[in-house]
Amino acid sequence: MFVANRMAKNPFTVTPDTKVSAAKDLMKKHRFRRLPVVDEDGKLVGFLSDRDIMRVSPSPATTLSRYEITSLLAKMCIGEIMQKEVVSVKDDATIEEAALIMYNHKIGGLPVVSSVGAVVGVITETDIFKTFVDVMGLTHGKTRFTIADVGDKVGVVRDLGGIIADCGCNIDSLVTCQQDDGSYEIVVRFDTTDSEAVKKKLEENGFHVSHVVKIG
């Protein structure tokens, strides 16, 4: 799964000399929270969020009139308030890379650039969440089995898959996660009409099924 498949393509952009009031109106009209800022060649030079606009907007306690506030924002340019040290991601990057960048930098969205530096999209935490839901097949009513205390040994996934196949089930998704004690937990999802029978079969073969639930 790549960023290019999940991003919002051909996003609205602004230039550094765009007035703050114009950018604010654009974001309000189209209901988005971020705008890439580009130069005359379409190259990324900044990133604007609704928080940047809120930071320079007068507070509700201000003594300025509505007209004075509008006039103030109409004089201010995006280049004065935008984030200039922009964290971005390439369109051929994986979703996992984008998620890690956002996690490490504690940000909710990234401008997406092509190999030549042109802005081609924006990817947000909402896109990441939707990808997670889609990859896990959460909307399709699968049964989720959590296999705990799995040792780090060759063939575990093969053995697990074989038992599930013997039960007449086809695995839709499988994720492994290392625990603090060094053991692994495996989360596997598939269709089954008899989860108790599958659980019993897994436990007869030495697997510890710690949780079973149908999602979706």
Automatic annotation (TrEMBL):
SMART domains with a match to the protein in the record: CBS
Domain ACT: 145-216
Entry keyword set: CBS domain
Signal peptide positions on this chain: none
Domain CBS: from-to ranges: 7-63, 82-143
The keyword DNA-binding appears for this protein: no
SUPFAM superfamilies from the UniProt entry: ACT-like, CBS-domain pair
Protein's name according to its UniProt entry: CBS domain containing protein
Organism encoding this protein: Selenomonas sputigena (strain ATCC 35185 / DSM 20758 / CCUG 44933 / VPI D19B-28)
